[in-house]
Every structure is written in structure tokens, then in C-alpha cells.
Design brief:
The chain is an all-alpha fold. The protein contains ten helices and four strands, in the order H-H-H-H-H-H-H-E-E-E-H-H-H-E. The chain has a two-stranded antiparallel ribbon. Strands 2-3 form a two-stranded antiparallel sheet. This is PTS system mannose/fructose/sorbose family IID component.
Length: 277
């Protein structure tokens, strides 16, 4: 099937069956291609590849360009909110074709971080903590209802993951027609929320303290206490800042950054300078 329209598309419009296929693939295979270099980029492409073939035609230059766009950059976001990006993405590509690929790349880059922070915090931490503890306590007490509560919560979460694909696709059609001027505002608002969530995650999930207590002039100096007086969780924040700085260096990858942090942590831990908080 060859492309017939100026934007490189076949004119195909996605159906409910297409969105259903995307949801099934998302539930079973979004993380299948995860790697340290680009994380979820191949899984994202695999989810929407059948629809891209329908939009651009099979084995066409436009399809290859779209695939390269999705597989090129680093991509990592929440498993629970990723189809928000997917739905808007397909709405844009269905309407603008290859002319909208640059906007799609910007959309993925702008929303993946905020949605990762919000989605993982709520669905990856908050809900499992609350309902997991409830189900566990009921199980300890010999009440089998706990397992049904846990299963029900996960069913609702998966239903929400599927439902948001339809919502985002429909909203995406409005974004590319009558609401395109509001897309930047939505992205900025989500980014601000994501920054707050990332700050909270750093304070609660990064556990590292200064264990060394040097003696100066016969007086032991509590370096960790000094850091706490300056700013609580200063050491974890400094570690995250260091990793952020590393990733901005030329030729640096996430894999290299991880190994650098591992080596430094093992060395400083062995010398008794730092410890797990």
C-alpha cells in the first residue's frame, strides 16, 4: 500500500479495534525491550507498529522515518500513564503524518518525565502501599478477602491504563485541530508537577548518609549532622545532582553513569566515608 496524501499517510483512521490492540500490547509487552541505553523506546514502537503500518502503508519511506523517530531518542515514562502519550501521538500522526513527527518527538520528550513522576508515585508506590498493606494484614488475620481486594485494585488500574488510550486519542484529535495552542501549557503544567514529585522521590527513596566522623583538633565532627542542619536530605540531593551533571557530559550514557556511581559508592563505602541511610 503506497502513501497517497501529501502528509505521507494513507488516510487511514484508527478504530476501536486498533486502540484495543494497542492496549493489549501495552499490558503485555511495553517493557519487553527495556534497556539501559534508551529504555522503553523499542517497546513503545512495538505497541503502535501495526497502526503505523496502516497510517503510512507497509514498507514505505514514511513508515521507516516514523519508526526511526520513535526508536531514535531516549524514552522512559510510567507504565501506568504511557498511553496518554501514545494516544496523542497517534492522533497527531494520523492527522499530520510525517509533518507531525517533530511535534511528536517534542511531545514525548516533554511529557515522559512528568508522567513518570506522577504515575510511579501514585500507581507504583501509593496504591500498592495502601492496598497491599490492607490485603497483607487481612491475610495475616486469616481473612481471604484481602486477596480479592488486591486483585480488584489491579484490575481497576489496568482498566484505567486502557481507558486513557481512548481519552488521549480523542483529546489528541482536538489538540491538533482546535486546541494546539494549549499543548505547551499542558506540558508546562505537567512538568512543574513532575518536578515536585521528583523532589519528593529523591528525599524518600535515595538513602545515603555520610558515615565518616573526622576528628579535628581532638573534636569529632559530625559531617552528616552539619549537612542536615544546612538542608535535610542534602546528601541524596547532591548525589542526584551529580548524576544529572554526568548525564550532561559529552559521550556519557545512563549505563556509564550507573557504573560510575557504583564504583564510587563501593569505594567510599569500603573506606567508611558513606553508608546506607
Amino acid at each position: 500500500m503506497s502513501s497517497k496524501l501529501p502528509n505521507g499517510t494513507t488516510g487511514y483512521k484508527l478504530t476501536k479495534e486498533d486502540l484495543r490492540q494497542i492496549n493489549i500490547r501495552n499490558l503485555i509487552g511495553f517493557q519487553a525491550g527495556w534497556n539501559y541505553e534508551r529504555m522503553q523506546h523499542s517497546g513503545y514502537l512495538w505497541i503502535i507498529l501495526p497502526q503505523l503500518r496502516k497510517i503510512y502503508g507497509d514498507d514505505t519511506p514514511e513508515l521507516k522515518k516514523a519508526a526511526q523517530t520513535h526508536c531514535g531518542p531516549f524514552f522512559n515514562t510510567s507504565n501506568f500513564l504511557n498511553t496518554i502519550i501514545t494516544g496523542i501521538d497517534l492522533a497527531i500522526e494520523e492527522t499530520d503524518g510525517v509533518n507531525g513527527l517533530e511535534a511528536v518527538a517534542g511531545l514525548k520528550t516533554g511529557l515522559m518525565g512528568p508522567l513518570a513522576s506522577i504515575g510511579d508515585s501514585i500507581f507504583g508506590s501509593l496504591l500498592p502501599t495502601i492496598f497491599g498493606a490492607l490485603a497483607a494484614n487481612m491475610a495475616i488475620a486469616g481473612n481471604p478477602l484481602g486477596i480479592f481486594i488486591w486483585v480488584a485494585v489491579n484490575i481497576v488500574v489496568d482498566w484505567f491504563r486502557c481507558k486513557q488510550t481512548h481519552m488521549a486519542y480523542e483529546q489528541g484529535m482536538k489538540l491538533v485541530t482546535t486546541m494546539s495552542d494549549k499543548l505547551n501549557a499542558i506540558t508546562d503544567a505537567a512538568t512543574v508537577m513532575g518536578v515536585f514529585m521528583v523532589g519528593a522521590l529523591v528525599a524518600t527513596n535515595v538513602g545515603i548518609v555520610i558515615d565518616a566522623v573526622p576528628v579535628i583538633g581532638g573534636v569529632p565532627v559530625n559531617l552528616q549532622g552539619i549537612c542536615n542542619n544546612i538542608c535535610p536530605k542534602l546528601v541524596p540531593a547532591a548525589l542526584v545532582g551529580f548524576v544529572y551533571w554526568l548525564l550532561g557530559r559529552k559521550g556519557m550514557t545512563s549505563t556509564k553513569a550507573i557504573f560510575i556511581v557504583l564504583v564510587i559508592s563501593i569505594a567510599l563505602g569500603a573506606l567508611g566515608i558513606i553508608a546506607k541511610g
